[in-house]
Amino acid sequence: MNLITRIQDLLRKPFFTDRRTLFGLWLLLPIVAALMKITKHNNYLIFRGVFWHTLQGTSLYAEYPDEYFDTNHYGPFFSLVIAPFAVMPEWVGLLFWLIALSMFLYVAIRKLPVSWGFQVAILWFCAHEQLTALFMSQYNIAITAGIVLTFVCIHRERDFWAAFFIMLGTFVKLYGIVGLAFFFFSKHKGRFVLSLLFWAAVMFVAPMVLSNPEYVLSQYAGWYESLTAKNAENLFAGGQNISLLGMVRKISGCVAYSDLWLIIPGMVLFALPYLRLILSSRYGGFRGLGYSSDVPIAFRLTTMASVLMFTVLFSTGSESSTYIIAFVGVALWFWAAPWKRNRWDIALMVFAFLLSSMSPSDLFPAYLRKEWVQPYALKALPVAIIWIQLIYEMCTRDYTDGRKLEDV
Question: pTM above 0.85?
Answer without folding.
Answer: yes
